[in-house]
Amino acid sequence: MCKGHSCYRPRRTGERKRKSVRGCIVDANLSVLNLVIVKKGEKDIPGLTDSTVPRRLGPKRASKIRKLFNLPFACVISLPIFSLTVYQCKSCIHV
Description:
Layout: H1 62-69, E1 87-88, E2 93-94
Antiparallel strand pairs: 1-2
Protein name: Small ribosomal subunit protein eS6
Family: Belongs to the eukaryotic ribosomal protein eS6 family.
InterPro entries: Ribosomal_eS6
């Protein structure tokens, strides 16, 4: 927006607009777009949906550890002993 208009006043010369996008029109003046992938399409987006990143950390809560490894409720779990090793394969992730 030009000087004298409401809603946006750049703090420095050449500063781009920080504003929310409503609708499908995206202007070149916007510096950052915050997006969320809602549904995966037929094709992959290179660098975004073509690679899977394994989880680094396992669950801490005892009930979630039991659920992950199908352990009975009577099983006592001590967290310092528990560690999760993740191996990445081409098609799947082994835990």
